[in-house]
Fold these 2 entries.
Entry 1:
Amino acid sequence: MILDKITCQNCKHEEKLEKVNYRKDSKIFLANLYLRQKNSEQEIYTFICFSCNHLTNCTPGLEYLETYKYDCTDNFVNYFDIYGYKNQFENLKKHVDNYNSTGQFDHVVEKFKDIKK
Ligand SMILES: [Zn+2]
């Protein structure tokens, strides 16, 4: 199976993986926020879908795990509690700010601003 697409597990929005974080029309942003499950050594990535404002945890091989809304307060007990929150929305936002020194993620920053609290 060739992994060339990433799919939001809530609204099924699909993006080409190639340059998914860099394309200005992309509605998905994917990052490694260094989450770890308690029973696995596997790296867990997190992505947000700006079409429906849901986040999804997944493996690097795109096995999809938890999907939750950006303001979800659920605790995922199968994860190490690195940041104190299981909801990675704020961390993802910070991650984008941290890696945006050259303005390459300005379009992502704008999409975060569009999400109404
Ligand atoms: Zn979606």
Entry 2:
Amino acid sequence: MAIFFTEAPEVEEIAAQIVPTTHPHLTYAKMRYVFRSEHTKSQGREIWATANLLTGRTKFLSGGYDFLIDVAEDVWNTLSTEQKFALIDHELCHCVVGEKEAWAIQGHDIEEFTAIIDRHGLWSDAAKEFAAVVEERVWREIHGENRAD
Ligand SMILES: [Zn+2]
């Protein structure tokens, strides 16, 4: 079935709540949020959303937007409100100011296989930093401390 794109006001509303407090630099970016009708797959994994930097021709054709966030509507409709906030926060983390004060896309903090951590432990600084946050987060959830933030 053909993929089609539609407006995503619910995504935009969530982003509008997150940007001022968590991603204030994006107050100055022109952000576009759309739904794609179905998720895609890349390297065997489901892609729930993507953050895209618009430059040159695509920026011109979009009417001057700096970033395009597209969200798979089929996945979106299965997510809880907390998951929706987490997904949009995640995509907004990709949207940064890079070199020469230009908008840029930031990669993930960690790229790892669960099996590698299982076999080799926290072998990299990135894995150690990630694990420290996970450990603290799990402790807070066990003790019922402010799950939402
Ligand atoms: Zn990502």
